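Structure in, sequence out. Go:
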């Protein structure tokens, strides 16, 4: 077996393994980006909890051939990178779209979120959603709101009782 074939098999296995571990992935085009821009993109994707792999289109197609998701052929025209989400696909989409606003060389082609193929428009809508942390905060706030209001109401009743006793005390002292 030649070294090139071993290398291609290793890359294909790596992409397929990442695809099994993280079912959320976004395909991007990076035509016209410098190596400094690519490093900045990798850092931004990593800070969003994801990772990005660059490979030949044939190897990416071979890796995702048995994934059960049918991707459009136009996704694999030109240089293609695959960004894998860690646990929050919203953060990954935000990072990619924010970077694409800064650098015109990066274009989001399509993605697979929860085994559903999404085009650029669908991924753009996902990127505008709040992150998991913000959503959790909103849920906690919604659950804690009535409890806090109830506690404040009880506190006001106690305070009014104390104020009434103080007023009675002031009247008796006169």
């Amino acid at each position: 077996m030649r070294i090139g074939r071993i290398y291609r098999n290793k890359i294909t296995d790596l992409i397929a393994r990442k695809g099994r571990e993280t079912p959320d992935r976004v395909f991007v085009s990076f035509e016209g980006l410098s190596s400094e821009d690519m490093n900045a993109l990798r850092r931004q994707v990593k800070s969003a909890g994801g990772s990005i792999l660059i490979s030949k289109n044939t190897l990416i197609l071979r890796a995702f051939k048995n994934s059960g998701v049918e991707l459009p052929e136009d996704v694999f025209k030109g240089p293609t990178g695959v960004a894998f989400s860690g646990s929050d696909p919203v953060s990954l989409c935000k990072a990619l779209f924010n970077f694409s606003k800064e650098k015109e060389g990066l274009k989001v082609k399509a993605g697979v979120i929860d085994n559903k193929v999404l085009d650029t428009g669908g991924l753009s809508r996902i990127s505008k959603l709040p992150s998991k942390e913000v959503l959790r905060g909103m849920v906690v706030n919604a659950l804690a709101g009535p409890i806090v209001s109830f506690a404040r109401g009880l506190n006001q009743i106690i305070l009014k009782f104390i104020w009434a006793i103080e007023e009675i005390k002031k009247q008796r002292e006169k």
